[in-house]
Specification:
The complex is a heterodimer of chains A (286) and B (312). With 286 residues, chain A is mainly α. Chain A is 72% helix and 0% strand. Chain A has 13 helices and no strands. Chain A is globular, with a radius of gyration of 24 Å. Chain B is mostly helical and 312 residues long. Chain B has two domains: 43 residues; 234 residues, Orthogonal Bundle (MetI-like fold). Chain B is built from 13 helices and two strands; from the N terminus they run H-E-E-H-H-H-H-H-H-H-H-H-H-H-H. Chain B has a two-stranded antiparallel sheet. In chain B, helix 3 packs antiparallel against helix 10 and helix 10 runs antiparallel to helix 13. Chain B is flat. The chains are: A mainly alpha (286), B mainly alpha (312). At the A-B interface, helix 1, helix 3, helix 4, helix 5 and helix 6 of A face helix 1, helix 3, helix 4, helix 5 and helix 7 of B.
């Protein structure tokens, strides 16, 4: 994605320099406002709890306290939370990518009666918030015996319309002639999906994987409704319960927060191109 | 090997061709469904069925212990109409929506315009702006709660520093809790919508700006007469997504203020949760859910209608 410029390139006149300086000031202020909470979170995690609130604020800890990063593993069941969350995020991502790209192929490359109506049903649910059907869904899940198991979260997240939509948007940019030629060469529809569409759509799959992974990792409401037992808690739910239990341990909670954000920050740094492209794809054509 | 998606030939009066075509349609249908089915089963069972069942449960009284429902007609809705807490939640949601949409839209567009140029470090700023959107809301709301704390929090300390002697109580004050929620909500989401706007800005041809400049249009005029019309489609999408996102707001208020102080930030989704999962009153909670459903779905359809009229 090339984000080219609006402003025609001008010679660096005096006015241009001033404008440029103003722009950078604006950008700097915006970035500071956006990132300050993160900075404060990290710095507080390196302080003692008593030093988190001081007047005036210490923007840097007087003495760096690394112990918080050891203490959190003993005071909280971080290992269990991280393991559960990682497990869920990976399973959900695999299922979402597989079923989503498979269905998207059906929607964009095979023509059959009722297809477009079905797709409208999918798209329509984007206008239906989960909060409005979480009650009947919960009743259903409890009758299926899935509540209070990790499967409930898999079921909840893995079959979303979003993945189908994103993959379909991408498949539609792949020229029809390609699958046409493969059909003449004797490939079945499944073969075309496997040998042509899947390799060609790697960028879209990367986008979908990262977005799904992050969404599942960060989900709070799903686990809140479905997961009760301590041994199946996710990082978000666990962190929240920890906050409720130790609400004055500011520094320790900040440490937990940093640890819950860190994996996502890493994933984001590595794949930010795909995040940005994924969001942009869903925006085009709408 | 016959082609599956071959366009049918216009001369198809002979019965043989017709039979072959109907076999083709049949084969395509089987192939198409086989692709869609793995996702569709999950989607149908976990989304479509619950949505349909919702409209039944809303008219019942649900007995949690016996797992059955008694039909009571519109009783839940009559009760809802006279439920002052429901109306509080309703108006709080409207309050949030009325401010969250314009604030986020303007912030996102502003950021996108600022970042849609060749400047050193632009990629970093784009990343920074998007980061809050993908960070855990549990951690974020906790950090913001401390930032907002009235006595010792950095925000009020800053406000006192610039000469405001009596800074607001933010999440501890009934009249300032909603503004606090709005600040965090806008801060968190503007990066996402900024990306949509950046993608939209890419679709506006540069020649339009050049032509406008040649015709003597000022920067302001270029913005109003080239950028804004060029972003019409993106703005529509952003508005639709923001509307649904605002009406369903839940985890943000639940984590930041727990709906309080009092009921000052109690929103519809939170009320559904309270009635359904805390008081196990599934029938009544479903009635509230129907209201939320109708609002979101209804407004989206109206927005699509308006958009289509605008396109014509």
């Amino acid at each position: 994605m090339t984000l080219s410029t609006i402003a025609p390139t001008q010679p660096a006149s005096g006015r241009g320099v001033v404008r440029r300086a103003l722009l950078y000031t604006g950008l700097g202020a915006a970035a500071a406002a956006l990132l300050l909470p993160f900075y404060w979170m990290v710095v507080s995690s390196l302080k003692r709890s008593n030093d988190v609130f001081t007047i005036p604020i210490h923007w840097w800890p007087k003495t760096i306290v690394w112990q918080n990063y050891l203490a959190i593993w003993q005071k909280a069941d971080m290992t269990t939370w991280l393991r559960n969350t990682l497990l869920l995020s990976v399973i959900v991502t695999i299922l979402q990518v597989l079923t989503g790209s498979f269905a998207a192929y059906g929607f964009s490359k095979v023509r059959f009666p009722g297809r477009d109506f079905l797709f409208i049903c999918y798209i329509g649910t984007i206008a239906v918030p989960w909060q409005s059907y979480m009650i009947p869904q919960f009743i259903l899940m409890s009758q299926l015996g899935l509540t209070n198991t990790l499967w409930s979260i898999v079921a909840l997240q893995a079959f979303g319309a979003f993945g189908v939509f994103l993959m379909k948007q991408f498949y539609e940019t792949i020229p029809e002639e390609l699958s046409e030629a493969a059909r003449i060469d004797g490939l079945s529809e499944y073969g075309i999906w496997r040998r042509i569409m899947l390799p060609l759509s790697m960028p879209a799959i990367a986008s979908l994987s990262l977005l799904t992974f992050v969404t599942t990792w960060n989900d709070y409401l799903g686990p809140l409704v479905y997961l009760r037992d301590p041994e199946i808690q996710t990082i978000q739910l666990g962190l929240r319960r920890f906050i409720d239990a130790y609400n004055a341990e500011y520094a320790l909670i900040m440490t937990g927060s940093v640890l819950s954000v860190l994996p996502i920050a890493l994933v984001f740094m590595l794949g930010q191109r795909y995040f940005i492209e994924g969001v942009a794809t869903t925006g085009l054509k709408g | 090997m016959a082609t599956l998606v071959e366009t049918p030939s216009p001369v198809s009066s002979e019965p043989v061709t017709r039979r072959r075509r109907s076999r083709l349609v049949w084969r395509n249908t089987v192939a198409g469904w086989s692709f869609i089915l793995p996702n569709f089963i999950g989607f149908a069972v976990l989304t479509m069925v619950p949505v349909a069942v919702l409209f039944y449960i809303a008219f019942t009284k649900w007995n949690v212990f016996r797992h059955n429902a008694t039909w009571i007609g519109t009783d839940n809705f009559v009760q809802l109409w006279n439920d002052s807490i429901f109306w509080t939640a309703f108006w709080n949601t409207v309050y949030y929506t009325a401010f969250h949409i314009p604030l986020t839209l303007v912030a996102a567009l502003g950021l996108a315009l600022l970042l849609n140029r060749r400047l050193r470090g632009v990629a970093f700023f784009r990343t920074a702006a998007f980061f809050p959107y993908i960070t855990s809301i549990v951690a974020l709301t906790y950090v913001w709660n401390l930032l907002f704390s009235p006595e010792y929090g950095p925000i009020n300390e800053f406000l006192r520093f610039i000469g405001i002697d009596n800074p607001p109580g933010w999440t501890t004050s009934a009249s300032w809790s909603m503004p606090a929620v709005l600040i965090v909500g806008t801060w968190r989401e503007m990066g996402y919508y900024m990306l949509l706007y950046l993608a939209g800005l890419q679709t506006i041809p540069t020649q339009l700006y050049e032509a406008a400049t040649v015709d003597g249009a000022s920067a302001w005029q270029r913005f109003w007469h080239v950028t804004v019309p060029g972003l019409r489609h993106t703005t529509f999408l952003v508005t639709v997504l923001l509307t649904i996102g605002s009406f369903k707001v839940f985890d943000l208020t639940l984590l930041l203020t727990q709906g309080g102080p009092g009921q000052s930030t109690l929103v519809l989704s939170h009320y559904i949760y309270q009635k359904g999962f805390e008081q196990t009153n599934f029938g009544y909670a479903s009635a509230v859910s129907v209201v939320l459903f109708v609002i979101c779905f209804g407004i989206t359809i109206v927005q699509y209608r308006i958009n289509r009229r605008g396109n014509a």
